[in-house]
Amino acid sequence: CDWSSDVCSSDLELIREGHSAHELAIPVFSVDGLGDYSREQGYAKGNVSLMWETVTYDYERGRIFEVDALDNIETQEIAFGRLAGEFMRACAIPETDAYRFAELCAGGTGRTESITTSEAAIAAVRAGVKALDDADVPYEGRVLFLSHNIRGLIDDLDLTKSAAVMNRFENVVTVPQSRFMTEITLLDGRSPGETSGGFVRGEDGTDINFMIVHKPSVLVYTKYAVSKVITPEANPDADAWRYAYRACGFSTVLSGRSAGVYTSHK
User: Fold this and answer.
1) pLDDT, tens only, 120-131
2) Which residues touch 202 (CB under 8 Å, ≥6 apart)?
3) Residue 148: which H helix or E strand, with range?
4) pTM for the whole thing?
5) Measured torsion, CA atoms of residues 27, 33, 38, 41, in degrees rounded to the nearest 10
């Protein structure tokens, strides 16, 4: 259930690089409303403006691993051969999801609630849909992300009781609870107590029940994500394989569009 950058940002256009390497510029439109039409003077003139809002990358992470060449041979090349796949599965992808959901939660709206029954689950999702409807958020492009627990409660309902609500979404994605929290803390991988890296639940973080995201209301962007392999022959420091990974990007709710992200959390 990796929420890759093309899921949310593929529908966004007119994005350009900012003035520095750490910036991206996104368009913000402003238009006047309707005025009275005069049969003598015609239309009331309105103004339209386009300004570029600058956002700064706030996610830049990386890690390098080294596996001795002989150790790799003695394990039939399993030691290094499976390293990249296991790192992406267990570390990089969960952290990417956790970071994005926490950032979108911080920029959106929602409510705190305990959901323990199927009826309460579908009622809560219905309330979220109504919140977007009342805020005049367009129907198109809405995605529902929900925990396995909430998904199970809804699946236990008769389809006639849930279809009317669930069919309102372009897509429904189930997210592991371990990466579905309102706040996380990224460990730096260097300081005492943080050498293992990765992320943990933030001090005020709670489990997310579900999140409704209107895709055009958010910008999830990966500026740079690269994996590289250095062979023992090219390694100047040791007779060892090296695997390095680096990612840079950000996740944000666009200015004035907080109503497009609704979060229900414990």
Assistant:
1) 999 999 999 999
2) 102, 181, 182, 183, 184, 185
3) helix 148-155
4) 0.84
5) -30
